[in-house]
Amino acid sequence: MELAYIPSPSHGVRYLGPIPLRGYAFCIIIGVFIAVWLGNKRWVARGGRSGTVADIAVWAVPFGLVGGRLYHVITDYELYFSEGRDWVDAFKVWEGGLGIWGAIALGALGAWIGARRRGIPMPAYADAVAPGIALAQAMGRWGNWFNQELYGRETHVPWALHITSSEGGRVPGYYHPTFLYESLWCIGVAVLVIWADRRFRMGHGRAFALYVAAYCVGRAWIEYMRVDDAHHILGLRLNDWTALIVFLLAVTYIVVSARKRPGREAVVEPGVSDGGTVDPEAAAEDKATEDKAAEDKAGNGTVGEAADETGGGTGSKTEDRTGDEPGDLAGPDAVAAKDEAESAKKG
Question: pLDDT averaged over the chain?
């Protein structure tokens, strides 16, 4: 008798009258809200307008769902197009099956479209939403728990997952809860990105690349533990190879980007005059720059005033004197009038 284990839900769906309430769908929806909420807070802190993240998410989320489903269907096509299978099942997203690689790739395309329509730099937007995406993944993995899917090898550790369903080739028993491992890893990734972004002021897409690289590391060892059917290449599961390639690309991007475009974007959303609060550290740096510019301007102004006093000022006083004083300092007309008066006196 097992003293401790993680129980699986007896049902992954409940009905409110004729309306099905699916645990998998709820986890995805909650994850999206978390990503938008945190992304909005980070975007406003960078100087953007509140609501922009949600507006762009309207493009990113549908694209991401389609991309995630496409990746799953393409890489596990035999589940839908082999003999005895119904291809219509490929459209039943609520039954599970979203590939994160396709979701991020096509979701990024949707975000790029939304960002371009608003004149926003895509790398800055990606940096803002990166930790939120990791937390959304952490929440979404609990959808696999509701569906009793994507678990690891058999085990008898106290935190083993108890699988009770025998549908779809499942064998009831106790297995590694890889959904839980990945959920916890994603939370750690979110914390890492938030810390690194504050510590190093990452910009130009590097915070997002850090999220991608860190996630790939965890996904690689978690994927190795899974026992569900998957395509293998040279003894490794397809997703392991994908994680390795994407990890190398993300690290390369961080290194190259840091050399070519150090620092972070000064402006993330053109035309924002209010509605956003600037990061205190960034505000301090901007204030220092403004103060130095003001000092330089003041110095130039003092030199100019001194020049006026020694140059232009003297000229003005001379002109005033030539207009008012008699004698040698008088103007030409006054001298001529004096000569005529003396001639008339002699005559």
Answer: 83
